[in-house]
Amino acid sequence: MIVKKVFFFLVVICLSYVSYQHDLVIDENSASNDGFQNRIIGGVIPKMHKFPFVAYILITINDNWCTGSIIAPQYVLTARHCFSYAVNATHDMNMSIVRDYIIVEVGSQHKGRGQRFRVRSIHTPSINRKWFDITILKLDREIEIDNITTSAITLRKWNPRFREQLLTVGHGKHVVGTHIRKESSYVAGSLTVTAPNGGFCKANEYEFCAYGKGEGTYLGDSGGPVIKVIDNKYYQVGLIVSGYIYEDINKTTLSDFGKYLIIERFCPGIEAKTQRTAICAER
């Protein structure tokens, strides 16, 4: 078994050395009809653009990338580490500097084909003056929401339940067995909620853990949404941040002990930073 701690923003590097930290109406019927397998590691590429709220985020300093979600016409939610450590893995960059090197693409499931936006400002919600791995990007202009190619996902208050199945979508590397592919499209899969201190994942009150054989998230998925499906409607309840990747004993499958932020803990800050254009739905 090999174990590596990883941030989920993309770094082009050999697996052996990998270390990474990972009411709008849309076509909600796709939430239950696609039969997603239990993983982005091993997940599926949707045949159509079924997640129009997913954003592809490119950091042009060194061509790293992350995933994000449209939460309001001018705001995208993602992970802070995608930018704070964009140049140096040990040096926390000033957000006002890295802002000029961020490109946000929306409107397509494929990298490089969406409408491009620059970032006007970066906001990090805090709780009791403590900072977490979550960031709101305010774009240079509003996204035209057509509920076909672009939409805003509804945030929802939620507490993790043991063994609950959740959906996730990311622009990261696609892992099938132990084979790693760089896809042009985002990849969809699911997560299984585990005990808060099970395996290699140690979660605090703002986080939850998810693990399953042959499932999880990977490089480039950081900042992507963790989704709960209720009455065939997608709600974002979590955020992809970090995890540990390991092989099974037969070296045929990669799995992930992932750590994810709970959106509910950050609702007041998100609503304030977006001038309440993004609202968390009640349970």
UniProtKB/TrEMBL annotation:
Short name of any one Pfam family annotated for the protein: Trypsin
Domain Peptidase S1: 40-275
Signal peptide: 1-21
Listed InterPro entries: Peptidase_S1, Peptidase_S1_PA, Peptidase_S1_PA_chymotrypsin, Peptidase_S1A, Trypsin_dom, TRYPSIN_SER
Keyword Acetylation set for record: no
Keyword Protease set for record: yes
Highest rank taxon of the organism: Eukaryota
GO biological process: proteolysis
GO terms of molecular function: serine-type endopeptidase activity
Keywords: Disulfide bond, Hydrolase, Protease, Serine protease, Signal
Matches recorded under PANTHER family: FI18310P1-RELATED, POLYSERASE-RELATED
Family as reported in the entry's similarity comment: Belongs to the peptidase S1 family.
Annotated protein name in UniProt: Peptidase S1 domain-containing protein
